[in-house]
Amino acid sequence: MAAEFIKLYPENPDPRKIQKIVNILHDGGVIIYPTDTVYGMGCNIHNLRAVERIAQIKGIKVKKHNFSFICYDLSNISEYTRALSTPVFKMMKKALPGPYTYILEANNSVPKILNSNKKTVGIRVPDHAIPRLLVKELGSPILTTSIHDEDDVIEYSTDPELIYEKFRDLVDVVIDGGYGNNVASTILDCTGEEIEVVRQGLGSVEDIM
After folding, report:
1. pTM higher than the cut 0.70
2. Residues 82-92 pLDDT 10s
3. How far apart, in whole angstroms, are the C-alpha atoms of residue 113 and residue 105?
4. Bridge partner list, 44
5. In what side-by-side order are the strands of the sheet with 4-7?
């Protein structure tokens, strides 16, 4: 069955449509959604079958891939990570919501499949109403992995209609939240003594350090 194509306006998302998507996530559905950077594919982090489906769609092994997940806010993050140092907490408070992914030390609440042998977890709080509302209503984070484009020039797919054409038979919902960005988030590793920039993306490091 083809995926549903659901239009949502970031400024004022329809609560009924949000609830419909949340119900699909509860039932183990896989969705594609907009963020403040690129479009992402995701599911409920506690649904093992849905996580495996995403790995299959992307042709990757769950245990070898560094999945990140979307949280609603900073208090949400502390449920899944070990205690943050004061400098890291201050930086995150300044940066989030925003186009950053933080690699942090995971605690035991992170589903085993996600942190397999690694003791770290990637966390996002995007500056975008749609994924944050979904997480809030779902009551748990959403796994996130970027939608890549086959085009050599553009690394990420930005047009929701083209994304739908490509993934309609693989996922359950594609959310049309308008054109996406084609620059991914900035990744910061906060697990060592020094904060390390793993990937420079949309988020400026100078603004938050």
Report:
1. yes
2. 989 999 999 99
3. 15
4. 142
5. 4-7, 173-176, 31-33, 40-42, 142-146, 68-70, 120-124, 100-105, 186-189, 196-199
